[in-house]
């Protein structure tokens, strides 16, 4: 049996009140709908009634107003949803009272309260979350792709492991396995040859859970997903099954790792959100960037250096994050490569997903810290034809292929390098906090872990 949907409607004064009332009556007359309240969000052009009492009388329902008829009362929308325990918000307003950015701001408020936001030709739904984890956990998600989620996830896993919290990682990716796959990074030696064997079997051996296992040497569980909605939901994923496996394996803390801007559909105790300072500001400050940021207990701001982001841009992003989520810790960082084997004195071909614009910084870091010679670089790990062209260009000068474990790192970079007789060394990306008065990243991560454990124990009575 279907339940009645308690609906809050948003209306404006750019419509004649009799027209608005007809729309409200129509919604009320639909089966399983009940308009429980109305929020007046602005506009006076077609208002003949000048008093709030007159508007309420004309519409025949409870109507809630902000202090300024020319501004959208965002705070009132949230309060009305809570007061009436609403199941859905229906937007009956229009330009010029709302534009695209204002509607996304309304959507963020509504979805954050766990109910849908609808209009004449749109519906936004809250993200799916399966409440199935039986251990403390946090989720790592991001505002975009290629901003360092797996690097931060692996970094956090190593840190948590060193603190003897015994973590595992459940990661979803676009190249993940049909059935959730356990990789015992704590037990097996993950060599280039081993990854080639997996690739030859048809496994995407550069998928995120393989990278996590290689970099952190802990147990990881790989899952797949297809599609990514605007809010963050995916079309299909087997992550629920992967999370259920995590409940059974030898691990005491679970890290749930997102993919691109897609949010894992698993409920966790806390959230770590990555924001790329290299991203366009409009994607961070508008659309559903704020929705993701508001979820955060810790925000790791990545790529905080020229030419990807100016210091002014970094400051603006930090100020914006704090304005919408004042309780979150915000830490700006940069990534630096860390070779997982000795490359001292060797000629190195370096393969990365970092853009060409930052390659000189990375080369200087590698040469000064590892006493090696970078004879060539390629930023085309995610573009197989261009990657192969770059490898052919530099391979005769190199002794070592140093590569991130991303995209085509195994089936092209590792394969071609081994075929040419080169040594293959994988590299991690380490997040380093930029200069300034910022909290220690390791301390901030452990605080999130401890608070997740406390939240889990409080919620479950453990």
From TrEMBL:
GO cellular component: cytoplasm
EC numbers on record: 6.5.1.9
Record keyword Nucleotide-binding present: yes
Any GO MF annotation of the entry: ATP binding
Keywords, in A-Z order: ATP-binding, Cytoplasm, Ligase, Nucleotide-binding
InterPro entries associated with the record: Cyc_diphosphoglycerate_synth (IPR016557), P-loop_NTPase (IPR027417)
Protein localization: Cytoplasm
Catalysed reactions, as listed in the record: (2R)-2,3-bisphosphoglycerate + ATP + H(+) = cyclic (2R)-2,3-bisphosphoglycerate + ADP + phosphate
Enzyme class: ligase
TM region positions: none
Homology family: Belongs to the cyclic 2,3-diphosphoglycerate synthetase family.
Role according to the record: Catalyzes the formation of cyclic 2,3-diphosphoglycerate (cDPG) by formation of an intramolecular phosphoanhydride bond at the expense of ATP.
Name the record gives this protein: Cyclic 2,3-diphosphoglycerate synthetase
């Amino acid at each position: 049996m279907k339940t009645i949907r308690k609906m809050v409607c948003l209306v404006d004064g750019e419509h004649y009140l009799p027209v608005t009332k007809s729309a409200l009556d129509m919604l009320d007359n639909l089966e399983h709908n009940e308009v429980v309240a109305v929020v007046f969000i602005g506009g006076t052009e077609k208002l003949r009634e000048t008093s709030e009492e007159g508007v309420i009388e004309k519409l025949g329902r409870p109507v809630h107003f902000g202090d300024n008829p020319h501004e959208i009362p965002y705070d009132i929308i949230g309060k009305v949803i809570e007061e009436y325990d609403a199941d859905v918000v229906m937007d009956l307003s229009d330009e010029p009272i709302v534009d695209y950015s204002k509607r996304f701001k309304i959507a963020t408020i509504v979805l954050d309260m766990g109910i849908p936001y609808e209009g004449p030709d749109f519906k936004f739904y809250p993200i799916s979350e399966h409440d199935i984890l039986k251990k403390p956990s946090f989720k790592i998600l991001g505002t975009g792709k290629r901003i360092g989620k797996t690097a931060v996830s692996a970094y956090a896993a190593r840190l948590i492991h060193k603190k003897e919290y015994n973590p595992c990682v459940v990661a979803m990716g676009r190249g993940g396995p049909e059935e959730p796959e356990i990789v015992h990074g704590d037990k097996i030696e993950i060599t280039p040859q081993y990854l080639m064997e997996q690739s030859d079997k048809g496994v995407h051996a550069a998928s995120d859970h393989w990278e996590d296992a290689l970099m952190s040497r802990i147990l990881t569980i790989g899952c797949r997903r297809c599609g990514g909605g605007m809010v963050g939901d995916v079309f299909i994923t087997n992550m629920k099954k992967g999370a259920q496996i995590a409940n059974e394996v030898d691990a005491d803390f679970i890290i749930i790792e997102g993919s691109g801007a897609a949010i894992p559909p698993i409920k966790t105790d806390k959230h770590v959100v990555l924001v790329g300072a290299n991203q366009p500001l409009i994607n961070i400050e508008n659309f559903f960037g704020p929705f993701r940021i508001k979820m955060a207990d810790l925000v790791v701001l990545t790529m905080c250096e020229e030419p990807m982001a100016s210091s002014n841009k970094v400051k603006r992003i930090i100020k914006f994050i704090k304005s919408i989520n004042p309780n979150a810790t915000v830490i700006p960082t940069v990534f630096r490569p860390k070779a997982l084997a000795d490359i001292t004195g060797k000629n190195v071909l370096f393969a990365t997903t970092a853009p060409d614009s930052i390659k000189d910084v990375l080369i200087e870091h590698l040469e000064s810290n590892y006493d090696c010679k970078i004879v060539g670089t390629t930023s085309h790990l995610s573009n197989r034809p261009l990657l192969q062209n770059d490898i052919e260009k530099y391979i005769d000068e190199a002794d070592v292929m140093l590569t991130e474990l991303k995209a085509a790192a195994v089936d092209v970079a590792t394969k071609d390098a081994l075929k040419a007789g080169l040594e293959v060394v994988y590299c991690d990306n380490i997040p380093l906090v930029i200069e300034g008065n910022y909290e220690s990243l390791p301390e901030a991560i452990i605080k999130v872990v401890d608070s997740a454990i406390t939240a889990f124990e409080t919620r479950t009575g453990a």
